[in-house]
Amino acid sequence: MKQQNHIPHSTVTVDLGDRTYDIKIGEGLLEALGDHLLPILPRPRVVIITDENVGPIYLPTVTRVLKASGVTVDSITLPAGEASKSITHYESLMDQLILLGTERKDTLIALGGGVIGDLTGFAAATLRRGINFIQIPTSLLAQVDSSVGGKTGINSKHGKNLIGAFYQPLAVIIDLSVLDTLPKRELQAGYAEVVKYGAIDNKEFFVWLETNGIRVINGNRQAQKYVIETSCRAKARIVSEDELEHGKRALLNFGHTFGHALEAEFGYDGRLLHGEGVAIGMVMALSISAKLGMTKDTDAKRLRQHLKDVGMMTNAHSLSSRHNLNLSAEKLFSHMAQDKKVSDGKMVFILGPLGAVCTRNDVNPKIIIETLEQSIHADD
Ligand code: NAD
Ligand code: GLY
Q1: Which is the most buried residue in 9, 209, 210, 361, by most CB within 10 A?
Q2: Are residues 83 and 207 in the same domain?
Q3: pTM, entire model
Q4: Distance of CA 64 from the midpoint of ligand 2 (Å)
């Protein structure tokens, strides 16, 4: 049997005045959930939202532990996958929550990956004009990114995350042990968001990842804890400085505009994971940065090499050949025009050298289309 709790637990605080909350990181935290949640629940009643993959594995434990602590527990299980971040599933979730008699002092618990976290957070933001919620992220992506910072929402048929709210959780509980059941492809996709933190403003971390990142993918718990804690600290710092994305927070979208366009093209049907799109998008962003003279071509090569080393796709060509689909640069570009970052009709891109990116809204569309074409026709 695997030994639990041999890595010390950590706490990272997201400093937001009277909405400040803690991110607890450690092994075996699900078994100690009562100790962590009872002091912060407005009253001991929760509704756990999970999905059909995570629920069968972890819902029994979470329910047993909370009930043993005197908490009344209901649960709702949704289909797994991005398609659940839709108006249809949101409506059905709200109906179920209302029928369960969920009141303002009750608390929703998101037990799952970023899909469950984003949807539950949005349900919490809008049910009875706002009730509390807690994030228990179970994918690497959710542990390093989506569970922290209060971006909640669902997709519209016109684009990703176009319907949503900034709404912070009461707490984030990260149990490292749950990564043992996460499929490797999901672990790799989540790892793209880890690389993002190095790429945006922490070159030293990127260099560490170049040597050690593969240990995260291979299940080394110390390495997983180090990258999750480093990522959460980075995200907590940025969110504390710029909760509503008036400035620095936009850097967290590095590579995402391209990734979102690819996701839209694949119709959120599971063939392309969010993190896979982000990985390809980050390479495109560095390649545009080199074309604009903001960095050397070697940065894009270095990022590409690292992503390849951990087994990820680095261009749109790999995607289209894997799925036997023709991608068009013009069509991807038109998806990008729907991005939330479009401001005064201008597309905003996160560009620059590895470890020191910034926002730019003056990129010639020809360069974007040319870069999309190159990614679509890349031969590596
Ligand atoms: P996901 O929620 O679909 O989870 C990935 C898959 O892994 C699912 O099939 C899920 O059932 C399964 N899974 C999760 N944890 C598991 C575990 N421990 N064991 C076994 N299976 C497990 O996807 P994701 O990659 O976690 O999140 C992607 C979503 O996050 C996207 O919708 C993206 O837009 C969003 N996101 C939001 C933010 C934010 O700031 N709110 C940031 C980044 C990404
Ligand atoms: N993942 C982007 C953000 O939280 O701002």
Answers
A1: 209
A2: no
A3: 0.96
A4: 33
